[in-house]
Amino acid sequence: MKSAAFLPLAALSLAAALPVTALADGAGLDFSGYLRSGVGSNQGGGGSQSCFQLPGAGAKYRLGNECETYAELALGKQVYADAETGARFRVDSRLAMSAKQWQDWEDSSSDKNGNSNSKFALREMFVTAENIGLGQAKVWAGKRFYDRQDVHINDFYFWDNSGPGAGIENIDVGVGKFAYAWRQNTVDSGNVSVDKLDHTLGVTGHDFRLSGIKVNPGGELTLGLDLRYAKKDSADTANQATNGVAFNVMHTQSGVLGGYNKLALQYMKGSIAGSYGYPNPNANSDDKKYRLVEQLQWQPAGSKFGGMAVAVWEKQTPAQGNGQTWISLGARPTYAFTKHLGAALEMGYDQVKPENGERRTLFKTTAAFLISPDQGFWSRPQLRLFATYAKWNQAAQLAAGADVNNPLSVVGHFGNQTHGVTIGAQAEAWW
Fold this sequence. Notes:
Carbohydrate porin; Maltoporin, Chain A; Porin_LamB; 20 strands; 2 helices; Porin_LamB_sf; porin; 55% strand
């Protein structure tokens, strides 16, 4: 365990030392990051905070409903600038840590199976070059978050093709800006072939995007095409090598009630039908997913009211049958009492209807008192004192199975009940 934790800790130590060196040689170092952490208690069978997510749903509503400590520390630096040509080269990195909120020294804790409570990941490590004779285009290579699109209140990344790759972006083609990314995934198949060896499969991706297409005053269109090609080695006879394709159309309207409105339509097929960042090369080539995501964020100028609302419709149609439809409706309005003090009320409803099963439902609402640097929906850091109430049906309880860590389960904190309450405090920050 000590050796497993050494590399992340060494990286953090190096990160702490770098700004001193950067200042010494006159170069600037960018430090940014994200964190959330807190404490909570459930008002059921006792114990720590419970968090509620409907089985089969792609996300959960976040406020007062996050049971982990999660942090990202990012360091970036422009390492070269040519005064004659204007060329610039930049290096970016990002280290992430996630831990269940069990005790004060997470690195040494583990569950009964010996699994570590803390997890570390190198989320980004890439280089960008610009002003190199290709107009406004930027060239990059490495591992990165790639133009991610999400809904903040339920942390739903509906368009996220992040990971190792290379590409070129910001190419002006008249009607908009073109970007291309070559992505690569190496996937552990999870199957053992006739030679008794566990094989990995390579999945190559080609991501094409055309963004900034002006279609109406204040409105822009983004079009995306993602192609995936899977390949296995010749000795692997147990696994498939399924290709995939995805189409995306997204309209963003700025200046709506001081915020924006974003509508996305998506179609995914084959290996990419489950996830962009984690393609499944063992999927059936006829697996399909259809998705609509509508979100509105508002903060009228001078108003104490802000917030975000979302609607998601997603239909999965596996080739082998037993698909499902997920519907999610939610909103988080906020109100500022003063510059630093405010309140939020988040309400979320999720419904999953399996093709051959009963309809599952979960309603969750959270009331929170907020402390922020300024009034406004996006003001961070933010301290929260919250109370969360959730209610689910018996179909959701059955789908939760015998998982003691799932509060919807009959063996969870709330037993045979189909409702529960948690209280707690949390901090969230980005900088």
